[in-house]
Amino acid sequence: MKKIVFMGTPEFSVKSLQALIDHPDYEVSAVVTQPDRPVGRKHRLQASAVKEAAQAADIPVYQPEKISQDQELDQLLSQGDIDLIVTAAYGQFLPERLLNYPKYGAINVHASLLPKYRGGAPVHYAIWKGEKETGISIIRMVKKMDAGAILKQAAIPIDDQVTVAEMFDRLSELGSQVLLETLPALFNGTVTETPQNEAEATFSPNITREEERINWDNTAQEIHNQVRAFNSWPVAHTFFDDKRWKIWATEVLQDQETDQVPGTVIAIDKKPARFLVACGEGTVLAITEIQPAGKKAMDITSFINGGAGQIEVGDTFQ
């Protein structure tokens, strides 16, 4: 039985961890995840999804603030009886010495078709940039971020309405499947390791607050991609009456054009309920779900009927 140390943090990582726990040929000897973090208005400490899954399976959990300085974990890995490290969205850089301790090294479950979208937000970027497909890459971990040789890849399509939250669910399932498909060849020495083409590498750094803001000079399709890419986190926003409003769902109206200034509300439809907004290059975007400042997200029917705020034709989002 191969002994594995699993490192991961968010919900995306849980299915890969569970797949290893459930497999008769593997023993998850320990789980490493980020420390509990304060969440919500009351700042209550919350365990990561991976920690909760590990505790449910009675697996020892390590939560170093800085993994590079954690002596307890270093001792565990350096004893020589760990066969492999598997990481999936762990959230910290692993020092090179840790990568070299296990007999079979360390591999990563990365949510993009590398070398595209290295970094911390590959799923967001794939949708935001209008990609038609993304996928999972199982890679050898090296000192440079997401730059190791590819052991196996699998692709899935990105449809025009899927959100990043939905895509994470699909990729989480795919990641667990591709991981299990990779391990037998890795352990028996028949796996093919294909170097990445550095010339084709692109990057997906963490989303900034400024990038969350909608630029209405962009086309309707570009804004629609942005809205989908940031739903359910961090959520695209705009300003109306100097207050931040979040935009949760949109549609591109391919058959409509306008000469209005981008950001202008050009129509308010009731069936189906939506705000039509002018965008760059004369394109038109329909907003179907919105969150006024200080209120909950709602569809446009609820907005109109509930008196959540007053938006009229001719008003402008900034």
Automatic annotation (TrEMBL):
| One Gene Ontology MF term | methionyl-tRNA formyltransferase activity
Q: Which InterPro entries match?
A: Fmt, Formyl_trans_C, Formyl_trans_C_sf, Formyl_transf_N, Formyl_transf_N_sf, Formyl_transferase-like_C_sf, GART_AS, Met-tRNA-FMT_C
Domain (Formyl transferase N-terminal) spans 2-183
Q: Which residues form a coiled coil?
A: none
- Catalytically driven reaction(s): L-methionyl-tRNA(fMet) + (6R)-10-formyltetrahydrofolate = N-formyl-L-methionyl-tRNA(fMet) + (6S)-5,6,7,8-tetrahydrofolate + H(+)
Q: What class of enzyme is it?
A: transferase
Q: Which UniProt keywords apply?
A: Protein biosynthesis, Transferase
Enzyme Commission number, as recorded:
2.1.2.9
Query: Which domain of life, per UniProt?
Result: Bacteria
Q: Where does (6S)-5,6,7,8-tetrahydrofolate bind?
A: 112-115
How is this protein annotated for GO cellular component?
cytosol
Which ranges carry the Formyl transferase C-terminal domain?
206-306
Name the CDD domains for this protein. FMT_core_Met-tRNA-FMT_N, Met_tRNA_FMT_C
What function does the entry list? Attaches a formyl group to the free amino group of methionyl-tRNA(fMet). The formyl group appears to play a dual role in the initiator identity of N-formylmethionyl-tRNA by promoting its recognition by IF2 and preventing the misappropriation of this tRNA by the elongation apparatus.
- Describe the family membership recorded for this protein in Swiss-Prot or TrEMBL: Belongs to the Fmt family.
- Its protein name is Methionyl-tRNA formyltransferase
Species for this entry: Aerococcus mictus
